[in-house]
Specification:
It contains 9 helices and 7 strands; from the N terminus they run H-H-H-H-H-E-H-H-E-E-H-E-E-H-E-E. The protein has 382 residues and is of the alpha+beta class. It folds into 3 domains: 120 residues, no CATH class; 64 residues; 143 residues, 2-Layer Sandwich (Heat Shock Protein 90), CATH 3.30.565.10. It has a 5-stranded mixed sheet with strand order 2-4-5-7-6. The protein starts with 5 loop residues before the first helix and ends with a strand. It is a multi-pass membrane protein. It holds the Pfam family HAMP. It catalyses: ATP + protein L-histidine = ADP + protein N-phospho-L-histidine. GO terms for molecular function: phosphorelay sensor kinase activity.
Amino acid sequence: MNGLSVRTKLTAWYGALFLVAGLVLVVINYLLVQSTLPDPARFASTAVAGDVAFGVAQRPDALSPAPAVRLVSGSLDEYRSSTLSTLLVGSAVALVATAALAVLFGWLMADRALRPLHDITSAARRLEAGKLDRRINLEGPPDELKELADTFDGMLDRLAESFDSQKRFVANASHELRTPLAVQRTLIEVAMADPDVPAELKKLGTHLLHTNERSERMIEGLLVLARSDRGLHARTPVRLDEITASVVRATAASAAAAGVTIETRLRPRTVAGDPVLLERLVTNLVVNAITYNASGGWVYVEVRGDPALEVRNSGPAVPPEAVPTLFEPFRRLGGAERTGDTRNAGLGLSIVRSVTQAHGGHAEAQPGRRGGLTVTVRLPPA
């Protein structure tokens, strides 16, 4: 924990204020006692004068008035200094002992005063997107801490209502997205069931069915991810190198059409996660690397330990200050090479980042030294 805790600061303030108040009392007490004790010289002169008046100084063994005044004054001055020193030392010892007790009681009182804040902090740390039923329900007088706890509970009520509304929206969107895909799949299957369908049309139908199936799986995966605020509910061991090899084979035709060469170095790498989402992650990276490239360019895809996946490509130079914005939804580089580009929806790298975070990893990008972009994805091992 950086710095001092609030409890320590409050205890320090309690102790400091008590010491200041104690010092003020000691000084006032010292001044009062000092002013109350008689002046040695004046008291000695008065006492000797009284003895002379009553004839005490006329005895043969009595001292003369002047030496007697000095003797009495010295004795009284020593007594006065001893008394004030004893008072000062005793007050200092009492002040230190009482200050130690004040610091101890201040520490205990600060803990008692801040306990509701600890309850609020603990409740906030236990919150999850799917578990917003926890409340503080602080009991006690209607003071500032009670008001803070009640305000926090009210905020949780509003958040829970907002998440419930979001879940209903996701469920409705899921239905609206899956229904057209199911209708398309049925129409394609019915058309392909006709024995008079030409071979070219049947090949096209097979490709459409495969695309339709992948779209359905992708929608299911994204909806699961949208419903989860803290990642995936279920994870399975996934061979990232095999998924990457499959994606490279699937995109080989589009790379050849764009005049881009794909090079790979795929080492065995197993991660825990969702195979559909991981396939979409790799697909987005490879497709982006092909799309935002130049004729005769290259794409290099590598799977290894750390980072788990790295995709580099040639192409136009990317300004370093523009790289962070590429991970935002519906954002493209503002240069001529991407302005007005309708080939993608601007969600490629934002989906990459979301999927990576859902798997407990981290995605980052940096400009290539000779143009293009280098994207690295770090994923925890299975």
